[in-house]
Amino acid sequence: MENAPETNADQNPEEFYRSPTTTPEADPWALPLEDIDLATGAIFQAQKHHEYFKRLRQENPVHYHDKNPEIGPYWSLTRYEDIMAVDTDFERFSSEPSIALFDELLGEERAPMFIAMDPPRHDEQRGAVLPAVGPVRLKDLDQLIRKRTVEVLDELPTGTPFNWVEKVSIELTTRMLATLFDFPFEERRKLTFWSEIITTPPILMGLTIEDRLNHLGECLQTFTALFKERQFEGNESQDFISLLANNPATADLEGVELLGNLMLLIVGGNDTTRNSMSAGVLFMHENPAEFQKIKDDQSLIPSAVAEIIRYQTPLSYMRRTAKEDVEIRGKQIKKGDKIAMWYASGNRDESFFPDADKFIIDRPNVRRHMAFGFGIHRCMGNRVAEAQLRIVWEEILKRFERLEVVAEPERVEHSFVHGIKALQVIAHPKGNKP
């Protein structure tokens, strides 16, 4: 990163930066505003981030922090209205060079991906893969999603604890990713592993920087072979790889640019669905009256799915870079400044969502949540994610009286991906109410 101070993480790849001030133990309401560093995974892991966001929405909704040596100075937008304005203004706020506050997702060489591009390149590359998740394709996928959901749920143990994340969320997500990429089904777990390699500091996975680069090298080699094979065959299938390989706008992708686009699709397909699928079980356990609502009226399931996504917000933020000097709420943002649009905060903005910290499945305006973004960069797989979650809850209600969470969830230490690593659950089948 240009002009960034050297850090411990630069000197020793086995370490990464943790804020000395913004910690789970600190009082979010007493910490000096200038010491608040929202890009701190520990506060998300400890579920303390919402209090920081609430304070900033009230006291300093356009917040500047310049003490994080790993990512450099950055602005934080915490109110729904401001996030919406920036997210839909690609003329003044660029997605290049990165969607995250840290500049590099794939190692030393920056990996171009269409979500981190501006028009017209963005439109060309995004348009190439849209058919894979478009309305026609989704109609075809619906039956397959249900078949796989039935298979996975019917294999679950009852009356004994199991990890819902491993047995359901990851399994269903990887099966869908394998379909969307037409990836070898028996190797599907590689897709979620590569997704974690991209978004997780190596030390948190028990890996070195060299390990990470080796895994990414394997990923690139695998996808390059599939890309060339489908290009040679002139494959007209509607999977992501075939669409990229045979569209004039993307047929010449290679190296890190190919990898960047494919990893974007993997991360997008993995994190939103997987973490919402896990979080929904937790939220329904914590809010039995809301669970009763969908038991009594299954037409509320689509609304419940949207509320799960709002309440969890699987990707906490997206970054933009100012293309010119601009003023927001009296704050002077300079050309080139990093801006974090905190979807996790916008989705809890009380001025837009009344009782925003409550889980309410029939919330009237829930479909206006920010978790999928807005404008030209709105998540293109949102309908597939919603379909997967809807079908999971439809099939849960056919089989189980309730899903009991029996231990505190294990969460990831990350400010970008708001995820759950493990969720111990006991499934109580219908007819066996304790």
Automatic annotation (TrEMBL):
Residues 1-25 are annotated as: Disordered. CDD domains: CYP142-like. InterPro entries: Cyt_P450, Cyt_P450_B, Cyt_P450_CS, Cyt_P450_sf. Transmembrane segments: none annotated. Keywords: Heme, Iron, Metal-binding, Monooxygenase, Oxidoreductase. Coiled coil: none annotated. Residues 1-11 have a biased composition (Polar residues). Its cofactor is heme. Pfam families: p450 (PF00067). GO terms for molecular function: heme binding; iron ion binding; monooxygenase activity; oxidoreductase activity, acting on paired donors, with incorporation or reduction of molecular oxygen. The keyword Cell inner membrane does not apply. PANTHER family: CYTOCHROME P450 YJIB-RELATED (PTHR46696:SF1), P450, PUTATIVE (EUROFUNG)-RELATED (PTHR46696). Belongs to the cytochrome P450 family. This is Cytochrome P450. It comes from Pseudohalioglobus sediminis.
